[in-house]
Design a protein that fits this description.
Elements: E1 8-10, E2 13-15, H1 19-30, H2 33-41, E3 45-50, H3 51-54, E4 66-67, E5 74-80, E6 91-96, H4 98-104, E7 111-114, E8 122-125, H5 128-141, H6 160-166, H7 169-175, H8 189-197, H9 205-216, H10 223-239, H11 245-255, H12 261-283, H13 297-313, H14 319-336, H15 340-359, H16 361-380, H17 385-388
Parallel strand pairs: 5-7
Antiparallel strand pairs: 1-2, 3-5, 3-6, 4-5, 7-8
């Protein structure tokens, strides 16, 4: 049974929404206060804020305080990612690190209440000496974990909505965010709005609808790069086989003969980059010897899912509208690709080609390694949506 915060029950027993809450429960059960603090230092923590206050420029609402009925003590309540409640138009969340909590801590409060009143709660000592330990743990932690696959067991796991949300799993893994959540926050309210403004240039709802439409039409992925791939795909269909590099190169030269010099040079670079990375894919065992990447549409579609989630977090759309947008994106992806692996390689190719185009192949190497690691997680992890959701 699904609950408002994504938790669930199985046979009458509570099931933790994500591995974050499972790890927290285990740390609390172990009785090691330092271990709990170290875990929290690597975890995204959230405080509830009235949207009216969050929209005041340059002002940060003070930390809230509640009274714990069991002990009679005042405490500051925070939530982990998996425990955020359903979306509400007038209540939003601010992400806080353990170090920030230590700096802003109210002088008269001595407890931090994590997931208060739930099966995944932790009551943490917040006396001045312990606040110093929080700051040290935060400094040593490197911040919230990234590069991990997080699944909300109470969220969509199968069906069209889960399929659409899984298109955005690459960025969710990159940032250490839950992939199958349309809820109260993507990262947090202020960050969601800031990320829409830059790099997306979306300051309000109307611009969001326009930019999402462009992503749905694959207009932002790179017209020259996409045209180079489309030329090979058309030639392969005519020949009944994958063309040789020379055949492809000649076809690209003919297709771009009437274009300006800038487009011709960009097409030559795109052909070199795609060839280089397809060879890398084969050497790394993620692309079959005769396999190829025919479209970069995955990059726009995958990013579009995250733009939808950002807009929901920014309160530019409501959950019903966001769900319909995600479902449309799922349909577009199924029309462009035949499998999760193909979709993922299209996303990976676009990411590294754009980085190589902007900064050169050497600068693209870290992007390639990171993206390849995320591809392996998504196609190999037994809990991944790419292993558990049918493509069509």
């Amino acid at each position: 049974m699904r609950t408002g915060n994504g938790a669930g029950t199985a046979g009458g027993t509570a099931v933790a929404p994500t591995e974050i809450e499972r790890a927290l429960s285990a740390a609390v059960a172990g009785g090691d206060a330092d271990a709990v603090v170290e875990l929290l230092a690597r975890t995204r923590l959230y405080v509830l804020v009235a949207r009216l206050h969050a929209d005041i420029p340059g002002w940060t609402a003070p930390l809230p305080a509640i009274r714990d009925e069991a002990s009679g003590r005042s405490c500051v309540p925070v939530l982990t990612q998996g425990m955020l409640p359903p979306w509400h138009p007038e209540w939003v969340f601010r992400e806080v690190s353990l170090g920030e909590l230590a700096r802003l801590w109210p002088y008269d409060v001595r407890r931090l209440a994590v997931n208060h009143g739930t099966p995944y709660a932790a009551m943490v000592d917040a006396r001045p000496k312990r606040l110093k330990a929080w700051a040290r743990a935060d400094e040593l932690s490197g911040g919230a974990r990234r590069g991990v696959l997080l699944t909300d067991v109470g969220g969509p796991l199968h069906g069209p909505l889960a399929h659409g949300l899984a298109l955005g799993a690459h960025l969710a893994v990159t940032n250490g965010l839950i992939w199958n959540r349309l809820g109260a926050a993507y990262e947090d309210y202020a960050t969601d709005r800031a990320r829409l403004r830059s790099p997306w240039g979306i300051p309000h709802r109307a611009e969001y609808r326009d930019r999402l439409a462009s992503l749905m039409k694959n207009q932002l992925v790179g017209r020259v790069q996409e045209a180079v791939l489309r030329t090979r795909h058309t030639l392969a269909h005519r020949l009944g086989r994958t063309p040789t590099h020379e055949e492809w190169s000649d076809a690209v030269a003919r297709a771009f003969a009437a274009r300006d010099a800038e487009d011709r040079a960009a097409a030559d670079r795109a052909l070199r980059h795609v060839t280089r990375y397809e060879e890398r894919f084969r050497a790394d065992g993620v692309l079959a010897p005769e396999g190829r990447v025919d479209t970069l549409a995955a990059f726009d579609l995958g990013r579009a899912v995250n733009v939808v989630r950002l807009a929901l977090g920014a309160r530019y759309v409501d959950p019903q509208e966001a769900e319909q947008d995600v479902l449309r994106l799922g349909g577009l992806a199924r029309a462009a690709y035949s499998s999760w692996a193909d979709f993922s390689l299209g996303y990976l190719m676009a990411r590294v080609v754009h980085r190589a185009e902007d900064d050169g192949p050497e600068a693209a190497e870290p992007t390639y390694r990171q993206s390849l690691d995320e591809h392996h997680v998504l196609v190999q992890d037994p809990t991944s949506p790419y292993r558990n959701i049918a493509w069509s």
